[in-house]
Amino acid sequence: LWFIVAFVLFYWIYYERIIYTEEQYLTQKFGQVYTDWADRTPCFIPRMHGYVKPSLPFSWKKVFKKEKNGLLALFLVFTAFDLLGVWLFDERPEIPVWIVTAFSVILYCVLKYIKHRTNWLDEEGR
């Protein structure tokens, strides 16, 4: 239970800061057009009526290219929760903490290398 409560709290704070920053940027870049769109679009929980299918399909390549920092942060948060569980409650995770940490750092470095040294994650029109 403590993990769920802490995770939801950290997730909320993390994304609230991202949303705030993006809203400031979009308001400066698009002005009233963005403000009008934001007024009729929910911030976090979408409305299903009025859904318009996007012109581009979902792309895992774009996720890996753009969200590597978020993926690293997610894995590091899980590592921190595992360490906190060991420290506070003497709960040993099923997977050793160092494996999760090593995996997250290696994944981050590989994605960063691929993004900057190859064109594997590039997609035409995106």
What is the CA-based Rg, rounded? Answer: 19 Å
Report the end-to-end length measured between terminal Cα atoms: 41 Å
Q: Could you tell me the strand content as a percent range?
A: under 5%
Largest sheet: none
Total DSSP E strands: 0
Large-scale geometry: extended
Order of helix and strand elements from N to C terminus: HHHHH
* Low-confidence blocks of residues: none
Structural class: mainly alpha
Helix proportion: 55-70%
Mean pLDDT: 88
Instruction: Count up the helices.
Output: 5
Quick structural gist:
The chain has 126 residues and is mostly helical. It contains 5 helices and no strands.
Overall description:
This protein is mostly helical. The chain contains 5 helices and no strands. It has helices at 2-30, 32-40, 60-66, 68-89, 97-117. The longest helix has 29 residues, at 2-30. The chain is extended and about 55 Å long. It starts with a helix and ends in a 9-residue tail after the last helix. The model has no long low-confidence stretch (mean pLDDT 88).
For the structure shown, list the relevant keywords.
mainly alpha, 126 residues, single chain, extended
Topology, element by element:
Elements: H1 2-30, H2 32-40, H3 60-66, H4 68-89, H5 97-117
Helix pairs in contact: 1-2, 4-5
